[in-house]
Each structure stands twice: as C-alpha cells, then as structure tokens.
Amino acid sequence: MTRTFVVTGAASGIGRATSQLLEARGEKVISVDLRDADIEVDLSSDEGVEFLASEAARLSGGTVDGVLAIAGLAQPVAKTVEINYYGTIATLESLRPLLLTSAAPRAALVTSMASLFPPDDTLLDALLDGTRATAMERAEELAAGTPEQSGLLYGTSKRALARWLRRTAASADWAGAGIPLNGVAPGVVTTPMTAGLTASEADRAALLTQVPMPLGGIFGPEAVADLLAWLVGESNGHLCGQIVFIDGGSDVVIRGDSTW
Ligand SMILES: NC(=O)c1ccc[n+]([C@@H]2O[C@H](COP(=O)([O-])OP(=O)(O)OC[C@H]3O[C@@H](n4cnc5c(N)ncnc54)[C@H](O)[C@@H]3O)[C@@H](O)[C@H]2O)c1
After folding, report:
1. Which atom of ligand 1 is nearest to 8's Cα?
2. Domain residues for 99?
3. Residue 155 maps to which CATH number?
4. Is the CB of residue 37 below 6 angstroms from any atom belonging to ligand 1?
5. Which GO molecular function annotation, any one, does this entry have (predicted)?
6. Nearest CA to ligand 1 atom 34
7. 71 lines ligand 1 (CB under 6 A)
8. Residues 150-198 pLDDT 10s
C-alpha cells in the first residue's frame, strides 16, 4: 500500500534525493522547504512549524506514515542552530500526532559526522538543558567570534541533536507509541551544502584530511537517501534511537573502538 511521507529539506541535496527515491517507489511525498516544495516554510520559527503541522494534516488527510527531518544549514551563523536543532525537533514533535494513526509509523533525522568534532560546551549544555534564549545568545556570541568559534556552531548543533535523539527515542511518545525514531550521520556528501568545499581536487584532498573517508571517499546523496528510506520503511520495526554513520569510515577512524 502507498505510504505517505513528509520530507523536509526536499528542494535540494539529500532531501531531494530521498523524495525522488520514495516517489520512484510509488510512495506519496509531501515536500517541505523554504521554496520549491508543497509546503514552503521557514522551519526555524514557531509560526513556520505551526503552518507545517496544519498543512501536513491537510495534504495527508490526517495520517502520515513517515517523517524525514532532513532540512539543515551549515553556515557559521546562529540560524544554523535554530534550524538544525530546534527546527528539527519541532518538525518531529509537531508531526508526531499525524504518525499515531499509521499502521507502521516511522521517523528519521539527519545529524553529521561533524557531531564528532569537539563542541562548544556552553552552547551544548544550553541546547540540551537550558532555555532557547540562553542557547541562542551563546550561538550569536559564537557567530560574532573568530572563525574557529563560529565554526563550532554546526558540529555543536548536530551533537546536541544526536543527544536529543538518544534521550527521546525510547520514551513513551516514540518507542512507547510504536514509532521507531532514528538518524543518519553522513560524512561528506556532494550537495549544494558542500559545493564550495569539494569543487577542486585540492579542496577535496584538504577536506579528507579533516574527515577521513577510507571507504570510497566523498559520495553522492543517493546513498544517504537509500538508508533513510529503509529507516522509515515498514521493515524497520525494531531500531530505536540509533544513528547510522554513513560516512566512508570517518566515525571508525576518529572514535576507534571507544564506541560500540
Ligand atoms: N552534504 C553533506 O556533506 C552533509 C553531511 C552531513 C550532514 N548533512 C546534513 O544533511 C541535511 C541535508 O543537507 P544537504 O547536504 O542536502 O544540504 P542542502 O543545502 O543541499 O539542502 C538543505 C535543504 O534544507 C533547506 N532548509 C535550510 N534551512 C531551512 C529552514 N529554515 N526551513 C526549511 N528548510 C530549510 C534548504 O532550503 C535546502 O533545500 C542537513 O541537515 C545537513 O546538515 C549533510
């Protein structure tokens, strides 16, 4: 039977590849993005998320089988934290009621191998256990700081999102409601987000010194789409709170056997 998916970030890169894959399999996709989507909305604002929830309810007829929260930003600005952390969580929480009437509800989000880089601890603590106002104040401080400081915004937002996933997936709202909630952590994937970093052979070689990818190097978004499609497919009934690193080996190289 045709399943209905809400895909954020669907206008570009990994979200676009995922939407195309699901549609090619005959599934119904409700695309969400700032532009070129069924629901055009800024997910970093409360009003945007309210609009998402009402439009998704209207376009789906009240039942969504899978939510793919893919939209994100990797710029050294505070908005990166607002969409990657708050926007992703709000997307999942606001669409959760529509999953409850599905026979096989699923949800997935996207972190990054960059979540392995040392974070800004003040921002990380504020995101996980403080208020949004305090976290955004720290994000603005970092954005206005040195390139090293503003460069911490992306990885810190993704590490916080990974921790949120671990704290949330086994709760009554998700596992308790029969909804597998999981994530993927890509390495470097060729999308508009990374275009400026992967343009030349020299750029790619420099990037791979920071992000070691011994298995096949930098790759295209279709591979991530395939994994995301499995995470939200009916056959995934028992994965809970897992983040699958689809990264050519950077997690293994960086964390070694400290993680299992
Ligand atoms: N490309 C990579 O190497 C890579 C690696 C690890 C993780 N990721 C993550 O994968 C996800 C997709 O990235 P991508 O590479 O496809 O990037 P992309 O820039 O090609 O696509 C991201 C999409 O998200 C949308 N978006 C951004 N802010 C939004 C907002 N406030 N409201 C609604 N939509 C918004 C953009 O408009 C864009 O269409 C992101 O979460 C990114 O952090 C990417």
Report:
1. 34
2. 4-198+213-252
3. 3.40.50.720
4. no
5. oxidoreductase activity
6. 33
7. yes
8. 999 999 999 999 999 999 999 999 999 999 999 999 999 999 999 999 9
193 CB less than 6 Å from ligand 1?
A: yes
Q: How many domains does the chain contain in total?
A: 1
DSSP 125-157: HHHHHS-HHHHHHHHHHHHTS-HHHHTHHHHHH
Give per-residue pLDDT as tens, 158-167.
Answer: 999 999 999 9
pLDDT of residue 4: 98
Please report which confidence band the pLDDT of residue 12 belongs to, taking 50, 70 and 90 as the band edges: very high
Closest protein CA for atom 8 of ligand 1: 112
As given in the structure block, the two tokens for residue 131 are 């208020």
In the chain, what is the straight-line distance between the N-terminal and C-terminal CA atoms, in Å?
Answer: 36
CA of 10 to the centre of ligand 1 (A): 9
CA–centroid distance, 181 to ligand 1, in Å, is: 19
What distance in angstroms lies between residue 172's CA and the mean position of ligand 1's atoms? 29
Helix, strand, coil percent values for the chain (each to nearest 5)? 50, 15, 35
Q: Which residues pair with residue 107 across a beta bridge?
A: 67, 181
1, pLDDT greater than 90: no
